[in-house]
Specification:
Number of strands: 8
Structural class: alpha+beta
Order of helices and strands: HEHHEEHEHEEEEHH
Shape: globular
Helix content: 25-40%
Length: about 180
């Protein structure tokens, strides 16, 4: 059934452009970022620090790490865990998590795999289970995919394998993919 647009008439008071309302801008951001938002992103959506604090206090946003939150309206799924880890640690998603993010694996790893720059301070208080390594990648080995830094496809495939929950080795699962 095609979508019908209903004209409300010119005499009806205009509610304002949706881009002027931080709640709506943030809802669009959350929908396209698996429910994860940082303080910096919330400020860019138009929220004030007090408005952000009220959302946290009311339980609408749940703290995953210092400055990283999950909207109560979204589940903490695999993609949200990966996004939160990348944001909380300024990390590059690598190894099996990067392979999953690239669509090379059917199942996300149980533990997010990522690398921190050697200069990053520890202690983000991130609640997401992650296997973090201290490693800096050359810029040509890192790409931004769906808004987060991940290792390129080739490096993600060559990463050391982790046992799959299905018992299928990583290289076998990647080799099943038709290129």
């Amino acid at each position: 059934m095609p979508l019908r647009l209903i004209h409300m008439g010119d005499n009806q008071q205009r509610q304002g452009d949706w881009t002027e309302r931080p709640e709506i801008v943030a809802a669009h951001h959350l929908a396209s970022h698996d429910g994860v938002i940082t303080i910096e992103e919330a400020l860019a959506c138009g929220f004030t620090r007090d408005q952000i604090r009220r959302r946290i206090d009311r339980g609408l946003w749940v703290r995953l790490a210092r400055g990283v939150f999950l909207s109560l309206e979204h589940p903490l799924g695999d993609a949200a865990r990966i996004r939160a880890t990348a944001a909380a640690h300024s990390a590059v998603i690598d190894r099996t998590s990067a392979a999953w993010w690239h669509g090379l694996l059917h199942e996300a790893p149980g533990q997010v795999t990522a690398s921190l720059p050697r200069t990053t301070r520890a202690g983000s208080g991130c609640t997401v289970d992650a296997d973090l390594k201290r490693r800096t990648f050359p810029s040509e080995d890192v790409t931004r995919l769906r808004g987060i830094p991940v290792t390129g496809t080739a490096l993600s495939i060559l990463a050391p394998p982790r046992p799959s929950t299905t018992g299928s080795p990583f290289s076998t699962e990647c080799s099943r993919r038709t290129w």
